[in-house]
Design a protein that fits this description.
This protein is of the alpha/beta class. The protein contains 14 helices and eight strands. The protein has two domains: 151 residues, no CATH class; 108 residues, Nucleotidyltransferase, domain 5, CATH 3.30.420. Strands 1, 2, 3, 4, 5 and 7 form a six-stranded mixed beta sheet that branches. It has a two-stranded parallel ribbon with strand order 6-8. A hairpin with a 2-residue loop joins strand 1 and strand 2.
Length: 274
């Protein structure tokens, strides 16, 4: 049991549907206010509007991880694949515990598309329906993932290098691509290269922050971009050159330091990301 699973069960007992109960229980994690969360999830109860398809408790889980860990770059196949893998893993956990993620199968009914009018909530309803237990269980599965993710993040680091193919570029804002290195226990464990999504004031620091980047390495960068990174708690290393992977390895060894290569001229500001 957890605070989230208790709250999910309580919300269901108050009359909210299964999806609302799970999704709204995690407002402290998603940053949504309760009213907004309840509205977003309102269509998914009863296996998608009582169509008896995917259980609303399961879709509630999916929406929580979408809000917390979802991708925003449509060109990143890796981000899509990672997120879909997470969704499938959560579904598998739920299915392993309950035999299905389909509403009608969980309820033991043969109706595929049920009437839109919901049943009256009374003692008999709660006795014959497993839904209160299912929303509690979904919240518990979700809590388990969030906790394990936080523990993993304590030992994980994501480093972005503003690059021209495999080489560190001089100008952060106009780089061709960002080489992203995931590091665990001071060792590179994963790599991907993503194209620069476009240069406009203030965009790239927020874009990289949304990707979970902890460190940005570049040849040069405008002071405005550096300030935004610093506000978000992202370490900035400028003055780097050469091979991007070698720069990351030097950083991990403690030999790559901030050199103060900040661009101050107006033309350079535009090129370097302000």
């Amino acid at each position: 049991m957890s605070a989230h699973s208790d709250l999910a069960r309580e919300l269901f007992k108050q009359g909210y549907n299964c999806s609302q109960s799970v999704f709204a229980a995690f407002c402290d994690e998603t940053g949504l206010d309760t009213e907004t969360a309840l509205k977003i999830a309102s269509s998914f109860g009863g296996g998608m509007g009582r169509l008896r398809e995917v259980c609303g408790a399961v879709t509630g889980m999916f929406m929580v991880v979408g809000m917390k860990y979802g991708y925003t770059d449509p060109s990143s196949k890796n981000a899509k694949a990672e997120h879909y893998e997470l969704v499938q893993d959560l579904a598998k956990q739920f299915e392993n515990e309950n035999g299905s993620i389909i509403c009608r199968e969980l309820l033991g009914i043969s109706i595929k598309h049920d009437k839109p009018i919901p049943e009256t909530r009374n003692d008999n309803y709660y006795k014959k329906r497993p839904c209160a237990e299912l929303v509690e269980q979904a919240a518990r599965i979700l809590d388990g993932y969030i906790i394990s993710k936080r523990m993993e993040e304590k030992t994980m680091m994501k480093i972005a290098v503003a690059s021209e193919n495999d080489m560190v570029t001089e100008h952060f804002g106009h780089c061709a691509n960002f080489n992203i290195f995931e590091v665990k226990d001071n060792q590179i464990v994963k790599f991907e290269s993503i194209p620069n999504p476009g240069h406009r004031p203030g965009f790239l620091p927020n874009f990289l922050n949304d990707m979970g980047v902890n460190v940005i390495i570049s040849g040069g960068m405008g002071s405005g971009a550096i300030d935004i990174f610093n506000e978000k708690g992202i370490e900035v290393i400028v003055g780097a050159s050469g091979n991007a992977k070698a720069a990351v390895e030097a950083y991990l060894q403690g030999t790559l330091k901030f050199t103060g290569s900040v661009c101050h001229e107006h033309q350079h500001h535009d090129e370097c990301g302000e």
